[in-house]
Design goal:
With 133 residues, the chain is α+β, with helices and mostly antiparallel strands. 25% of the residues lie in helices and 28% in strands. It contains 2 helices and 6 strands, in the order βββαβαββ. It is globular and about 45 Å long.
Length: 133
Amino acid sequence: MSEKIAVRTEGAPAPAHTFSQGVRKGPFVQVSGQGPVDPATNEYLFPGDVAAQTTRTLENVRAIIEASGASFDDVVMLRVYLTKREDFAVMNDAYGEFVNKHTHGDVLPSRTTVFTGLPREEMLVEIDAVAIV
C-alpha cells in the first residue's frame, strides 16, 4: 500500500486551519479548497471581482498540483463553489480561459459547480481538484 504524503508549496497559501494544501497517495492527488489568496501575504485579493478571484484561485490550485509532481494536464476533476448564481457566466469565462491555457490536448477536466456560502465574506469562489499522475 502506498504512503499518504502531504503536499506543500510556498506557491499557494498556507492552510489557515487543520488540513493539508494537498495530499498524494499513490497516483492520486487531492487539492484542498483554495481561494483568491496571495501566497506571499495570505491576504484575500480582488474583492468583488469574481473573474480575478477565479484566476488567482486556479493559480493556487495549479501550484499545489505541480508541487505534488503532477501537472495541470493530470487534473481529472475541478469543483467550483460560488456564492452567487449571477457570477456563474463571469466565473465560467475566467475558468475557461485558464483551463484552456494550462491543458494540452482535447480532454478538459470534469467540473462541478455548486452555489453555497463560503468561509470568508470576501470569497466569491473556492476551487478544489483531483489529479491522477
